[in-house]
Amino acid sequence: MASSKIYWVYMLLCENNTYYTGYTNNLEKRYVSHVEGTGGCKYTRSFKPIRIAQSWEIREGKGRAMKVERYIKKLPRTMKEKLIECPELLRFETI
Questions:
Q1: What local confidence, expressed as pLDDT, does residue 39 receive?
Q2: Upper half-sphere CA count for residue 85 (Cβ side, 13 Å)
Q3: First to last CA, the chain
Q4: 49 beta partners
Q5: Helical (H) or strand (E) element with 64
Q6: Do 14 and 44 meet the contact criterion of CB atoms below 8 Å apart?
Q7: Predicted pLDDT at 4
Q8: Which residues, including other chains, have CB under 8 Å from residue 8's CB and lie 6 or more apart?
Q9: Residue among 74, 14, 65, 84 nearest 42 (CA)
């Protein structure tokens, strides 16, 4: 049976004007770890996050959050920017 734990898939805007995508079960704590350079993410240690560009609540468990994260990471930058502007464009049923 799938976990009922809530996860978040998020996109960070980094200081080098790139987007970092990740998932977590505690968005606030994870963002702080990115900003402080703790938590094992080499990318955001090198390019500090400026802000959370967008986030999505995932209620279907960790596996689902990982699939959504992987889907977003593969998108071209133009599509990522569209998702930031209109987060409802992310169609979870197609992922």
A1: 86
A2: 6
A3: 20
A4: 14
A5: helix 62-73
A6: yes
A7: 67
A8: 23, 24, 25, 26, 27, 30, 55, 56, 57, 58, 65
A9: 14
Assigned token pair, 32: 């702080």
Tokens at residue 89, please? 């464009």
Residue 91: its pLDDT value, please? Answer: 87
Residues 65 and 17: their CA atoms lie apart, in Å, by 24
- For residues 54-78, one letter each, b for 16 or more C-beta atoms within 10 angstroms of the residue's C-beta and e for the rest, the string is bbbebebbeebbebbbebbeeeeee
23 neighbors 8 (Cβ within 8 angstroms): yes
pLDDT score, position 76? 97
Q: How many CB atoms lie within 10 A of CB 91?
A: 8
pTM for this predicted structure: 0.92
Residue matched to tokens 């080098």: 16
Instruction: Tell me the average confidence (pLDDT) per consecutive run of 10 residues in the chain, 95 residues long.
Output: 78 98 97 94 95 97 97 97 96 83
